[in-house]
Amino acid sequence: MSWFRKVRRAFGAGNKLDVPEGLWFKCERCSEVVYRKELETTCHVCSHCGFHFRVGIDVYLCIFSDNGFVEEFDARMHSKDPLHFSDSRRYAERLRKAQKKTGLSEAVRTGVVTLEGRELVLGILDFSFLGGSMGSVVGEKIARATEQARRRSLPLILVSSSGGARMQEGIYSLMQMAKTSARLGQFRESGGLFISVLTHPTTGGVSASFAMLGDVIISEPDALIGFAGPRVIRETIGQELPEGFQRSEFLLEHGFIDAIVPRPELRSTAARLLAHLLDNAHLPSHPAHSRS
Known about the structure:
It contains nine helices and ten strands. The chain is α/β, with parallel strands linked by helices.
């Protein structure tokens, strides 16, 4: 009888379930599959294990501002190719590809924002643009943002995510370490407040300059922070490194950073720090007790 036979259905293109690309993400730590909408509500942190997915400028701009940039600095500034550098591909071509891929002119955006109604200068590096590397333009934009914060008497927050100095620009890139550090020194002498936020990874020339010069240095959990990579250090000294070496938890334990803050708590933490350090700045550090 025909009703007893199994009916084989042919599944063609019309039967295929179409799942939009980027709708689901697999956690790199726990391998759980996480829905995009769920990630957006947790600032792209895995709800199963707390793993922090790498995010770009837009997410941090949302975290550290009320409504994005009130005023953006040097938005059209972009790198040239002073050395006419070429390896497997010309540097100029790499720049064009990064700009097209990310929609950014460079690896950093800077400007004035408000956070809980308070004005501040904010700078954010994006790892998706040539590894967040610091070339001449990145260093110049950070230096100019620092100077704007000094002139306007505003606090400064810089969010770092970088592989270090941009090798394609040679000494032009390396000199940005000194330039950004000098500007931050002037900013500090004028009484400015600088909060440095370290994300995964913050390495090389960025970690050896402005990223580690904050009055307060906070980091996301499990972020790689250091100058040379663990493999290079291990091979150089010929010794095994401690477990968790160069991760934010290790740095906190050894006093290199001040706090580890999960991404969903960054906004409230920054707002509290600004309120405490600025609103109470006029108070003496050790108030005199009244005498009878």
